[in-house]
Write a structure and sequence with these properties.
10 helices; 9 strands; two-stranded antiparallel sheet; TIM Barrel; seven-stranded parallel β-sheet; alpha/beta
Length: 308
């Protein structure tokens, strides 16, 4: 089943949630004070070249607050915009399966008990941050709530993964997806358009590749340059071309037409922190970017999966 509308020719997350839960659903991003094997020295201390010190976008929780304090503060902001809804708790910053099983169990179950209207849990992580104990815990939680694990892939091309210092290869990603789906856990994959050295064909190949896997959702981001990241230091020394808004819109539309029409589109653009963003400045215009994608699809009568 797909969730297309006259305005949106792809499966929006909002429409999917409304259909599944019969309610507006908000994600509340909490900080569980995790780190990452690509930052703590297990793999590297440098991190991915695009990773910020916070490991998340502008709206993540604050690690010095308790989970309850984070939840209450962000919930209040949400309620100022929309009166009623249900909540999915989202562990977003860094790698949220990277830690002792006792910590993971405590945090996940605490998150589910924060409010009577919490109906699910999203966990963002890397594909190399699992073991059998963690898979078993996730399987247990999946039987109790609506669980989604978000995996950063960024690109299918191992050459680029090495260039951006991901610290894992495509095989590790496929292994994680297969292990999660064996346990019937929903998987959402993050990809980034505009990574250094990638052509449009390479980015389209990443979209095509995802059709080979049993995934339930996708998040599409663009590469942007923000302060205090390795890529900022590279860009500062020798600026390199970044995608224009038009190029990005055209590319995302092509990617949407390529991906299976059963996959839910969780995101079409990123959320850079405005005060840290260097380039491209257009990436702050989230509403305009999404609107341009919608307009182009309607104009050309294109739909998600129409070239699948």
């Amino acid at each position: 089943m797909n969730y297309f509308t006259e305005e949106k020719h792809y499966n929006t997350l909002n429409n999917y949630y409304r259909h599944r839960f019969n309610s507006k659903v908000f994600k509340i991003a909490l900080n569980g004070d995790f780190t990452c094997p690509n930052r703590d020295g297990k793999i590297s201390t440098l991190g991915c070249i695009f990773c910020t010190d916070s490991g998340s976008g502008e709206f993540g929780g604050l690690k010095h607050e308790t989970l309850q304090e984070q939840f209450n503060r962000i919930k209040k902001i949400m309620e100022n915009k929309w009166e009623n809804g249900k909540y999915i708790v989202y562990f977003q910053s860094f790698s949220n399966t990277y830690g002792p099983i006792t910590k993971l169990r405590k945090l996940y179950y605490e998150a589910l008990s924060l409010d009577k209207d919490v109906i699910g849990l999203n966990i963002g992580t890397r594909p190399d941050c699992f073991n059998e104990e963690i898979y078993d815990l996730l399987s247990e939680i999946n039987e109790k709530t609506y669980l989604t694990v978000e995996l950063g892939l960024q690109t299918m091309h191992d050459k680029t993964l090495k260039l951006i210092n991901r610290g894992h290869d495509l095989f590790a990603f496929e292994n994680a997806v297969n292990n999660l789906r064996k346990r019937k856990i929903n998987v959402v994959v993050h990809i980034i358009n505009g990574l250094p050295g990638e052509t449009q064909d390479m980015m389209l190949d990443t979209a095509r590749y995802l059709n080979k896997l049993d995934i339930q959702g996708i998040k599409i981001h663009m590469l942007y340059i923000v302060k205090n990241t390795p890529i900022y230091r590279i860009y500062e020394k020798k600026p390199f071309p970044l995608l224009s808004m038009k190029d990005y819109v055209d590319l995302v539309v092509k990617q949407l037409t390529l991906i299976n029409d059963q996959i839910i589109v969780h995101r079409l653009t990123g959320d850079p922190e405005a005060n840290a963003l260097i380039e491209p400045k257009w990436s702050l215009k989230k509403f305009i970017i999404v609107n341009e994608i919608d307009k182009l699809m309607r104009k050309n009568k294109l739909y998600q999966g129409s070239n699948y």
